[in-house]
Amino acid sequence: MAGFFLILITAFFFPGIILRIKSLASGRRGPGVFQPVKDIRVLLRKGSVFSNTTGLIFQIAPAIGLAGILCAALVIPFADQKAIISFQGDFVFFSYLLALGKFFSIISALDTGSSFEGMGANREALFSMLAEPAFFVLLATFAMLTGFTSFSDIFNHFYFSGNHYVLIYSIIGVYLFIQIAMIENSRLPVDDPKTHLELTMIHEVMILDNSGFDKALIHIGSYLKFAIYGALLYNVIVPSGWSIFLQASLFLAVQLIFAVIIGFAESFRARNKMNKNPKFILTLTVIALIAFMIILILTEKFI
Amino acid sequence: MSAQIFLILLFLSVTVFLISKPYKYYFALFILACGIAVSSVWCFDSLSGTGKILIIEPYIPVLQKSITFTVDRLSAFFIIVINITVLTGLLYAGGYLRPYYPAKNALRFSIHYFSYLWLWFSMIMVVLIRDGLPFIIVWEIMALSSFFLVIFDAEDRTIMKTGISYLIQMHAGMFFILIAFLLIGKATGEMSFNALSIYFSHHSNLLLFILFFAGFGIKAGFIPFHTWLPEAHPAAPSHVSGVMSGVMIKMGIYGIVRVLISVQYDLLIIGVIILVVSLISGILGVMMAIVQHDLKRLLAYHSIENIGIIGIGIGLGVIGMATGNPAMSLLGFSGGMLHVLNHSLFKSMLFFTAGSVYQSAHTRNTEQLGGLMKRMPYTSVFFLIGSLAICGLPPFNGFISEYLIYLGMFKSLSAANLYQSSGLIVSIAGLALIGGLAIFCFTKAFGIVFLGEPRSEKAMMAVEVKKSMILPQLIPLAFIVIIGLASVYFVRPLFSIMADIFHIPLMTVAAGASLSSLTQISLLSGIFISVIVIILIYRYFHLRSKEVSYGPTWGCGYTAGTARHQYTATSYAYNYNHLAKPVIGTTKAMKEIAPDEIFPGKRKFESHSPDFIKDLLIDKPVNRIAGLLKRIAVMQTGLIQHYILYAFIFMLLLFLLTYLKLI
Hints:
The complex is a heterodimer of chains A (303) and B (663).
Chain A: H1 2-25, H2 35-45, E1 48-51, H3 56-73, H4 90-111, H5 115-146, H6 151-156, H7 166-184, H8 203-206, H9 212-237, H10 244-268, H11 277-298
Helix pairs in contact in A: 1-9, 1-10, 2-9, 3-4, 3-9, 4-5, 5-7, 5-11, 7-9, 7-11, 9-10
Chain B: H1 2-12, H2 21-48, E1 54-56, E2 59-60, E3 65-66, E4 69-71, H3 73-96, H4 106-128, H5 132-150, H6 157-188, H7 196-202, H8 205-220, H9 229-235, H10 238-262, H11 267-290, H12 295-322, H13 326-361, H14 372-375, H15 377-390, H16 397-413, H17 418-450, H18 457-460, H19 467-470, H20 474-485, H21 488-501, H22 508-544, E5 548-551, H23 569-572, H24 574-584, E6 587-589, E7 606-608, H25 612-632, H26 640-659
Antiparallel strand pairs in B: 1-4, 2-3, 6-7
């Protein structure tokens, strides 16, 4: 239960911290940490404009997306506590719930009949499709290392294998989680949320027509997604045996560092050329396969 | 007694020719309903006991012989699958065939309904009969009756051609099965599935299995045996494509499973073969589906993909048996078999909706459709739910079967050796890729066909189909939702069926853990749905208090957009096409704009995505043979003198050969 609330709390700060880091790095004063939350308040106060072309899908898609993300957060464990809902293969459910949200956001973009949004929808569909195997291969290696098949069991037993090389593996795991989180959230280097030209956008162009309440839901969802992936990172990095307060403060620290990394990365890095993206994403699957090789060595199946 | 009723129904079905045109349909429905009642009784009889095998031996006076129907739990499971879809198919046909009434004569309809009934009879008998010869006969009846169903629209020459090509390919499959049975008969003296285990205990298991796999694989549509599938499904009327894709191709799966039950040696290599073929089918099937423009052809390629997923489950199960991993076996087989049921539900529903779209918009070309959600709300919702289910997304049934297969793989990873775990990783990545590609494909299909603005006059004029076509689709829809939400009630019996027929010790730990996980999934799905509902209710009241206005879609400053500016299916798949070029090889045809052409004139753009396996396996060899035969046709001069000469040469040859004692 604590994990779920920690995720909710960090989601509040997360985008603000990225924003602060980016403005500090570019030498601006920039908005405060709570600016994204204030933006949501503004959006919630606003009315909505709907396109005449759109229909039912456009109305329900943001709600389904957010509900999916909220429910996905329920299977994330914290410290040595089990997640609120934990079962064998819950990461399959986790991934497919997020995919369901994405399915709806793609078709809601197509619902507007705009060529710009179609373009974004197609790119998002392609890139997230390519990222799917990387996530599953990574989780499969986790399952292979620990012998368990749920997030809670895997992370509770992650560091108990007694093999110190697991550290090398966890570094690759962290790297992959960060990259997958970036793709899932449509951030650099795959997509740049701050780009100003519709032709080069991916996620932003899909939500061109959303306004008011729906847009707020979409933003909340993306903040939550950051916090969820941050929580996964924390679970990989921090062993589960420590005291609860230490764990909680480490949780916040990991989330903070994650946000700072994203902020700096986005400040000093250019976005990939659009046709480089598939290569970039497929490379992740290959790295995941390298992680798999390491596990084979760790579990003494190989060499 | 029940068997007699079944046979009487069989003979009664002929009367469909005698009844006047409007009542033929109701008569066929009546016969089918009676037949389903009878077969369901067998099915429940067999399922209610533990491992009970029902043997029915109706005496057939004409043959003066009795044939043996054996209902075990595998047959019972397939009878359920067949009955649901065949019944909904016929119910849907009631509305779907109505527009054809004025155009086609009564005989056409008689043949159609008669073939439909016989397709059902033959499928039921395929899963009941164990003896080789009767089995091949009903297998043949199944191919013939489906052939007559496919060519319903035979005025169209291409459909007739497709139908004949279908029939030929089905016979190629039967040829393999026949050889396999002959081998069994020669070795054991009994041509029957029952003799399989005797055969397998003394002879090479791999060879016979490969023969059966090729034969049944052609029916099931595994790549590279799939070539008939994307042609026959679009050609057939939609209720027929629904039944063919939903259940008829599953007869191939039934055959494979029936053979697998008796296999004793070489399990590992057999499992690996099934797994590899299935992975290839799954990935290539969905890859080729994405580039299709014909809605039904797209669905047909998805059948190949889903057969691949079923095969992955079965292959996993076999490997589990080979390596002594009952948990993997149980989860693999159960996942595969549940996917058989699931696929029959959502694929038939998707074909029905495609039929509704075709009937209402008179085109299946996705590039000409669009904006149908507003015009055909029910059909769109059915298609949407079907798409979500086929992509394996929660909370629908497709997720449950894919989840079981995933779970089987993930659970086996830690205890697997180097080769097994490498294979498992490849399968997991493959299955994940299939899922991602399916999402890509169905966002395209749903988004382009049902959303946005209509891309043609035809789509603009589309209206919702009649209630008689909508209501039958509620049957598969209900199952899709129920299996998705209350999976444990379906998986538990399935576990016991699979454990029973494959002699897997029903490991209470593995099975129990999986079942309790399924309960958790139901819980989480319930939470998910309630969260959606809560947000939507809140949204409703929130929007009521705010100013809501409507306007055109934001065009980034450009205000004169038309429906032609929308993204099309081709442009949606453009990126993907670029990536998949080595495999799909989409060709484009457009005259390039010359440098001195200042005002380019009208141009035509064409893209074509060939099925390279079909090219390689069917088209090229057939063309080569046809070319060869054309050269031989030089002999066919039409002059009687030449023919007499041929006869003379032939006789001379005979004499010569006899003289030399060569024949």
